[in-house]
Specification:
It is built from 3 helices and no strands. Helices cover 83% and strands 0% of the residues. Helix 2 (40-66) runs antiparallel to helix 3.
Amino acid sequence: MVVKSVAINAYQNAMDVRRKSVNNTVTKSLAKPQEPVQGFSETLKESVHKVKRHAGREENDDRGVRFGQEAERPRTDDNHAEAGLAMSMTSAVRSKLMSSYQEIMRMPF
């Protein structure tokens, strides 16, 4: 029985150390000021702004190539890919928003 008692004491001590560690972590995270939550409209506006910025970079690269300016091919390709992906994502989000809106409009009230 003595061995069991020693094992239980060791387990309880380990759990106390772990509990204190968790309590300290939780206390620290609660003490930090919370960042304001960004609303849906602000998130959407920010995303559209980023898409416009990517499209602008792509347009600048195209303009430079058309007028004979030297352009770094990998950078130009990356800008084209980023702009294309941003437009695809914007289109997908728009489609989801429209389908959600239509579904809400079909709901009986």
